[in-house]
User: Fold this.
Amino acid sequence: MELIESKYDNEIIIEDVSFKYNREEVISKAHFHIDRGSFVCFIGPNGGGKSTLAKLILGLLKPTEGYISIFGQSPLKARGRVGYVPQYTNFDLEFPINVIDVVLMGRLKKGSLFYNKQDRDAARNALKSVDLEGFENRHFSELSGGQRQRVLIARAISANPEVLILDEPTSNIDATTENMLYKLLFKLNNRMTIILISHNLTFVSENVKKVICINKEVKIHPTGDITSCSIDKLFSHPVKFVEHSTKVEEIHE
Ligand SMILES: Nc1ncnc2c1ncn2[C@@H]1O[C@H](COP(=O)(O)OP(=O)(O)O)[C@@H](O)[C@H]1O
Ligand SMILES: [Mg+2]
Assistant:
């Protein structure tokens, strides 16, 4: 088993994955690979199954059918190798919590309620990576939306994951902050694989080589292939779209 798996150490493999919450299939026979080190986007209409697919990759949900491997390990075993910024963080902003304590949550280990020096150093480094050095003792609730989002990214990367999944991280922030966030993600992409769930097609078309379109069924496109027509079909309503000339270097069937 180990020998067979080692062949896939550099890929996230989704093989014929289907998923049902209840009776109805939400993901139907998804089949694709994500290379280590790449930056891919999941796009698709609301309710299309993007968050569900993210949770399957994270091992928070189990496929009804099919197989997922994260660099040769099952999602459950690979849990510590994948960082996650969820779509909705129901943080009670009234709750007085410092930035460093939010980031430290990313270092929580099973069976331990305490953080050691290594945890604190890692949390500080994570804050540095998102350009929030010096914010350790600020209250989370005092921060702007963009800063809060960066703290949540720091929390997700504080355990030095190999993959970072962000579920629509820009839905509540303004355009300038959004651009800063993308810059940060490209910087992080130098050391980890990024899976970004995004609605911003302009950003996607200009910067990302591979998009994974999710509307129950999953289709992979190099961005050069995406036309406003195919996007409209996917979203079932017209979507503003900017033409582009992204160089396509890889095409996955
Ligand atoms: N916990 C759940 N229980 C039952 N159905 C769910 C649950 N979460 C999501 N769904 C349904 O699964 C489908 C896909 O949802 P989701 O993955 O959240 O889509 P997206 O992130 O693309 O908006 C939707 O029809 C949604 O209503
Ligand atoms: Mg979602």
Residues 175-188 form the longest helix (14 residues).
